């Protein structure tokens, strides 16, 4: 079906707010993005500073639960604290210069990359944070690849220019060589390490010289100057002369920046700064304002669906139980893709055709929640309706449609899980079901012995700790875990006969998933290739197809 049909006047009539000017303005002013980075590159600090510079908080440190200061809000948070990592995703919505920015937080630790991958299915743009000294690290590479695959435009923020060893030219070269994307600097650091004094705005051709404030808790005082009009009091002549040379070089050799090329994912604008000292934050925020795209059309089984389709539709990209253990609830995160969501609206789940009234819709701001009565494309809602949703579900009104995309990612770690207390078996089963529904883990079973202990499959091994921790703290089911030597899983598609006669190497293992689909575990890529050769009539997939 064409976009035309999906935005038909009939549909507009069905949802009167749909076609209004106000609706279009709400779409136009939204920017939904995530920050991707390797742990410790400075994502949390940057988030905090974006809130500071947007005027959302008066003092940095008010919102962020810093590793060292996090209050023990729950046992769940305790695990985060113990490990010094961020596990739960939240959504920060803040206004800046007439725009509404929705920042979807993502867990930084690689073992939670599946959560992060899914969150990236719900954004229109990403800010990639690099540590200037460490350059491009493993997790950045993985997350960049996901964004590139989904054609998500990326703004780069090279952080920690205040640290000795920062290397801006090296950073640019590495982005191009390792990530294979053209890097176009839009500002340039004035000095680095202890000499880091500010940034040169390559667009406005203006120096921004900052005076540090303790811990970067408030906005830093900023002086501006032109390259040919800087006094010695403002900037050391040696730093100025170096800056002049660098700017000349960049202006001669650099590729011009165009928003089109950025939106198509061909280039990434690069900003240098320091999240800790607030240097360069304002320019990054301005770039988000100027260049980040409003909610984009989304692929569905009925073709691309534009955000201004009047009828509401949205997709569940993440499910998480007991986000707030005081309520023992289960939150499904929904990204509004088109139309206007209003609380108490009756929607259908496209997968089942089930109709339901959505009355418990919430905005999730850091650890806080508030009821959300209206939401527009680009917004993220937390829905607390237990047991109804699965990952990837589309909720819609009017003509049914199902958004397409990948919500399951290839598992690489496997283990058997056993409940040590048979008295708690029921709770154990219930907890496991919940975790599967959330997409935290996948459950595989031996088709010949389905009552045997299940095999857990996860993208990262730390996910097993979380499973054990949550089963124990939320369901009081103590478990033991035993890691298995497999490194990859492949789902198998073919005729019943071919699957029945599947030849699996002795080091592999044939199992079924919760939907009864056949999956084979392998310990090496070589064994997988060998199995493929032995079974030419079947197809192998590295992730479970959407249910
Ligand atoms: P993450 O969310 O990406 O994991 O990184 P986070 O912001 O927590 O930052 C990791 C460490 O790097 C923190 O130090 C933070 O203060 C420091 N940092 C962030 N941005 C900058 C910067 O621009 N310059 C410098 N020099 N350091 C920066 P920490 O000691 O590990 O934690 P904390 O006690 O400061 O919270």
Automatic annotation (TrEMBL):
Name of the protein in its database record: Peptide chain release factor 3
Region (Disordered): 1-23
Keyword terms of this UniProt record: Cytoplasm, GTP-binding, Nucleotide-binding, Protein biosynthesis
Entry GO terms, CC: cytosol
InterPro entries per the UniProt record, alphabetical: EF-G-like_DII, EFG_III/V, G_TR_CS, P-loop_NTPase, PrfC, RF3_C, RF3_dom_3_sf, RF3_GTP-bd
Family according to the record: Belongs to the TRAFAC class translation factor GTPase superfamily. Classic translation factor GTPase family. PrfC subfamily.
UniProt KW tRNA-binding keyword: no
GO molecular function: GTP binding; GTPase activity; translation release factor activity, codon nonspecific; translation release factor activity, codon specific
Annotated GO biological process: regulation of translational termination
Primary location class: cytoplasm
Function, as annotated: Increases the formation of ribosomal termination complexes and stimulates activities of RF-1 and RF-2. It binds guanine nucleotides and has strong preference for UGA stop codons. It may interact directly with the ribosome. The stimulation of RF-1 and RF-2 is significantly reduced by GTP and GDP, but not by GMP.
Subcellular location: Cytoplasm
Family annotation (CDD domains): RF3 (cd04169)
């Amino acid at each position: 079906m064409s976009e035309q049909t999906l935005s038909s006047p009939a549909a507009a009539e069905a949802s009167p707010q749909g076609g209004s000017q106000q609706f279009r303005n709400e779409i136009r002013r939204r920017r939904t993005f995530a920050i991707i980075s390797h742990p410790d590159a400075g994502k949390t600090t940057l988030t905090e500073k974006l809130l500071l510079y947007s005027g959302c908080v008066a003092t940095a440190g008010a919102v962020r639960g810093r590793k060292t200061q996090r209050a023990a809000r729950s046992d769940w948070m305790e695990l985060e604290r113990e490990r010094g990592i961020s596990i739960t995703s939240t959504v920060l919505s803040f206004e800046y210069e007439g725009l509404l920015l929705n920042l979807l937080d993502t867990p930084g630790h690689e073992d939670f990359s599946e959560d992060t991958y899914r969150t990236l299915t719900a954004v229109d743009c990403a800010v990639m944070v690099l540590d200037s000294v460490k350059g491009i690290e493993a997790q950045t590479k993985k997350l960049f690849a996901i964004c590139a695959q989904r054609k998500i435009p990326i703004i780069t923020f090279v952080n920690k220019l205040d640290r000795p060893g920062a290397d801006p030219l090296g950073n640019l070269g590495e982005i191009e060589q390792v990530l294979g994307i053209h890097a176009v600097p839009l500002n340039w650091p004035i000095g680095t390490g202890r000499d880091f004094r500010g940034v040169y705005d390559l667009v406005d051709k203006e120096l921004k010289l900052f005076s540090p404030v303790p811990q970067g808790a408030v906005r830093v005082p900023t002086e501006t100057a032109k390259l040919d009009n800087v006094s010695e009091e403002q900037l050391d002549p040696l730093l100025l002369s170096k800056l002049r040379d660098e700017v000349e070089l960049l202006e001669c050799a650099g590729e011009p920046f165009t928003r089109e090329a950025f939106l198509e994912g061909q280039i990434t604008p690069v900003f240098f700064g320091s999240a800790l000292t607030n240097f360069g934050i304002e320019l990054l925020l301005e770039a988000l304002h100027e260049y980040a795209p409003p909610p984009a059309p989304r692929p569905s089984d009925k073709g691309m669906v534009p955000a201004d389709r009047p009828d509401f539709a949205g997709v569940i990209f993440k499910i998480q139980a007991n986000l707030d253990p005081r309520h023992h609830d289960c939150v499904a995160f929904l990204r509004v893709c088109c139309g206007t969501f209003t609380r108490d609206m009756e929607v259908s789940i496209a997968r089942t055709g089930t109709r339901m009234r959505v009355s418990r819709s919430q905005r999730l701001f850091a650890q806080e929640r508030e009821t959300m009565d209206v939401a527009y494309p680009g917004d993220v809602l937390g829905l607390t309706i237990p047991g109804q949703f699965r990952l990837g579900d589309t909720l819609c009104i009017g003509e049914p449609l199902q958004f397409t995309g990948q919500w399951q990612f290839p598992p690489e770690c496997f283990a058997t899980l056993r409940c040590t207390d048979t008295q708690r078996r029921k709770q154990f089963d219930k907890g496991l079901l919940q975790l599967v529904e959330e997409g935290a883990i996948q459950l595989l079973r031996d088709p010949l012995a389905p009552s045997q202990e299940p095999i857990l499959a996860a993208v990262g091994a730390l996910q097993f700790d979380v499973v054990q921790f949550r089963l124990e703290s939320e369901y009081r089911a103590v478990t033991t875990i035993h890691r298995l030597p497999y490194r990859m899983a492949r789902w198998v598609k073919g005729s019943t006969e071919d699957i029945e006669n599947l030849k699996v190497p002795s080091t592999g293992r044939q199992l079924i998933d919760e939907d009864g689909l056949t999956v084979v575990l392998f310990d090496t890529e070589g064994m997988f290739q060998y199995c493929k050769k032995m079974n030419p009539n079947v197809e192998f997939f590295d992730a479970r197809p959407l249910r």
